[in-house]
Amino acid sequence: MATMPKDAQDLFDNLVPEGLKQFPDKARELNAIYCFKISGDGGGEWTVDTTSNPPTCTKGDSGKAQCTVEVASDDFKTMLSDPNAGMQLYFQGKLRVSGDPMLAMKLQQLFEIARPK
Hints:
Number of helices: 6
Oligomer: single chain
Strand order of the largest sheet: 3-2-1-4-5
CATH superfamily: SCP2 sterol-binding domain
Shape: globular
Distance between the termini: 8 Å
CATH topology: Nonspecific Lipid-transfer Protein, Chain A
Number of strands: 5
Structural class: alpha+beta
Helix content: 40-55%
Number of domains: 1
Largest sheet: 5 strands, mixed
Radius of gyration: 13 Å
């Protein structure tokens, strides 16, 4: 059973960078720059760049994101535990996506890479 990240900080400070390091080719298949803005406890802002070689995950908004995802920390945790929750949150207006919506559809791939097997 994969361990769930405690919060967004755990995910983007630890799991995503580790996943990008372990599976750079898989990450590069996404070929996109994402910005995550997570509000509330354990939140923050991160830029995940799967176009760079090697792919990177850095704190803050680089201003170069092709897809920006904004969500509250609690809803973000729900998304991580339930791959289908993203759509529901989106339609409830709790998940905001700006930029290329097609890239948002690939987020699950990014989280798969970050999940410790």
